[in-house]
Write a structure and sequence with these properties.
Chains A, B: This is 23S rRNA methyltransferase. Chains A, B: One of its GO terms (biological process) is methylation. Chains A, B: GO terms for molecular function: RNA binding; RNA methyltransferase activity. Chains A, B: Belongs to the class IV-like SAM-binding methyltransferase superfamily. RNA methyltransferase TrmH family. Two copies of one chain form a homodimer. Chain A is 33% helix and 20% strand. Chain A is α/β, with parallel strands linked by helices. Chain A has two domains: 3-99, 60s Ribosomal Protein L30, Chain: A (2-Layer Sandwich), CATH 3.30.1330.30; 114-256, SPOUT methyltransferase, trefoil knot domain (Alpha/beta knot, 3-Layer(aba) Sandwich), CATH 3.40.1280.10. Chain A has a seven-stranded parallel β-sheet, sandwiched between helices. In chain A, helix 6 (124-136) runs parallel beside helix 7 and helix 6 runs parallel beside helix 10 (245-256). The relative contact order of chain A is 0.14.
C-alpha cells in the first residue's frame, strides 16, 4: 500500500517546502520537480528520484505506473500539502524530489558541436528557456559564466521543461572557454548592439560554433567581446529598443546552425 | 513644490495598489507603469500620464524633467509606498499611472504588412514578449483571439517593455480575421506540430502575411488551422518536446519576413 501523508505539519512536508529556497536545496542536496511533464522527463531519462508525491486526483496514474519500477517510493499527499509545496499555486497533483546535479566544470577536450555560453544572464525564466531552446536546437551544451542564477530554483526548473536531463550544463570562466574554442579553430559569435557588429544573417551556417548571450541590461562583457571570432546583432525594424534575450538566443541558435 | 505622500494609509496609495488587480484596473480605468524604461517609453510616445510617482533616490530625475511639461503631475513617494505598489518587489523608484487603452476591435480594410495572431496563449510573460518581438520585427499589429489574458496585468506590461505604445493591438474573432486575409490575398501561416506541416524554412519570405501562434499546451485551434494558407513547424533537433511559444514566434517572425 502507498504511504500517505495528510498533515501539513509532517516533517517531510516541511523539508519539501524548504526546497523552494537555495538554502533548503543546499542542505538537502535535492530539488523539486513539479508537474507531470517534468516528472515524466526525469523518469524517461532514468534519473533516480528520491520520492514521487501524488494527490488522489492525479490523472496519469496508469502511465506513471508503467514508467516506474517497484522500488520507487510513492507517497500519496493531500491537496493542501500539494498547494503548500507547489511553487506555481496551481499544482498538477504530482511532484518528485531529485538529487541536485552538479554542473560540469571541466572544458571538454573535444569542442565539436554547438555551444551556448551565458554571460551574467539574470532572469530565471530567460535562463531556463535558453537551456530548453539549446536542447531543441540540438546543441552540445550550455556554459554558465559569471553571475549565473541558481540552476535549480523553481523558475529555472520550470522553464527548462526537463532539458536539464538532455543537455550538458557547464559552469566556468567564459574567457577560458573562448581560449579553448580559439585553439579548436571553431568560431565564436558574440552578440553586440553596435555598428561594428555584423548582421546575423551574414554569418555562414556551420555545424560547430559557440554563441555568447549576455546580461539583459548590459549585454555581453566587453572583454569577452574582444575574444570572439565575430560579434553579431539582430536588426530591429520597429520601435522596440531590443529583443528579449531568450527570444534573440532562439533566433540565433536556429539561424546559425547548419543541420 | 512637488506634492509628497508618505503614509501608506493614504487613499491614493490604496488605489494605486489596487491596480495590481483586474477589478482595480477596471474600476479606475487605468494601469501602472513601473520602472524608468516603461515610463520613458510612454513619455516618448506622448501618452498622457495621470500622475508620475518618484522616490527621493530616483536617479534619472534630470532626464525625466526634460521629457515632461510643467502641467505633468509629479508626486514624491516614500520607499515604503514604492514597495507597496510595486509588482516586482524591487521598485526602481519611478511609476506612472496611464489610462487603460482599448484594444482595437475592427479589422482594418487594408491588411498589408505583417500580423501576429494569438490563439488562446495563456502565459502573461509569453504574451508580452511576443508583442515586444512583433514590435522589434516591424509588424503592423498583434491580434488577440479567444482566451486572451488581460493585456494590462503587471506581468504582460513588464514583458511588453513599452511596445504597447508602438504597435497596434486588436482583439477579435480570429476566424473572421482569416477570412479577411483570404480576401486580401495575403498568406496566413499557421503553426502545427504535424507531418502535414511544412518546415518553416521552406516558406518564401514575404512583406505581407499573418502568423498564428497557439496555446502553450494545445497549439492553434484545429478549425483555425483549416483556414490557413499553409501550416508550418520548426524542426526539433534535440530531445526537447517543444519550444517555448514566444521563442518559436520570434524565430518565425524574423525568418518569414522579407525586409
Amino acid at each position: 500500500m502507498m504511504k500517505k501523508i495528510e498533515s501539513i505539519q509532517n516533517r517531510y512536508v516541511k523539508n519539501w517546502t524548504k526546497l523552494k529556497t537555495k538554502k533548503g536545496r543546499k542542505i538537502q542536496q535535492s530539488y523539486l520537480l513539479e508537474g507531470w511533464h517534468l516528472v515524466k522527463e526525469a523518469l524517461l531519462a532514468q534519473i533516480k528520484l528520491q520520492v514521487i508525491l501524488v494527490t488522489a486526483d492525479f490523472k496519469e496514474q496508469a502511465e506513471l505506473t508503467k514508467l516506474i519500477n517497484q522500488e520507487q517510493q510513492l507517497i500519496l499527499i493531500s491537496p493542501v500539502i500539494a498547494e503548500k509545496i507547489s511553487d506555481t499555486g496551481h499544482p498538477q497533483g504530482i511532484f518528485a524530489i531529485a538529487a541536485l546535479e552538479k554542473s560540469l566544470a571541466e572544458i571538454p577536450a573535444e569542442l565539436a558541436g554547438k555551444w551556448l555560453l551565458l554571460d551574467n544572464v539574470q532572469d530565471p525564466g530567460n535562463i531556463g528557456t535558453m537551456v530548453r531552446t539549446a536542447d531543441a536546437a540540438g546543441f552540445s551544451g550550455v556554459v554558465f559564466g559569471r553571475g549565473t542564477a541558481d540552476l535549480f530554483q523553481p523558475k529555472v526548473v520550470r522553464s527548462m521543461q526537463g532539458s536539464q536531463f538532455h543537455i550538458r550544463l557547464f559552469t566556468g570562466n567564459l574567457s577560458d572557454w573562448l581560449t579553448a574554442f580559439a585553439q579548436s579553430g571553431y568560431p565564436v559569435w558574440g552578440t553586440e548592439v553596435s555598428a561594428q557588429a555584423l548582421d546575423y544573417r551574414q554569418v555562414k551556417r556551420t555545424h560547430n560554433f559557440a554563441l555568447i548571450m549576455g546580461n539583459e541590461g548590459n549585454g555581453v562583457d566587453f572583454q569577452l567581446l574582444k575574444q570572439t571570432t565575430q560579434n553579431i546583432y539582430i536588426p530591429i525594424y520597429g520601435q522596440a529598443e531590443s529583443l528579449n534575450v531568450a527570444v534573440a538566443a532562439g533566433i540565433l541558435m536556429f539561424q546559425l546552425s547548419n543541420y
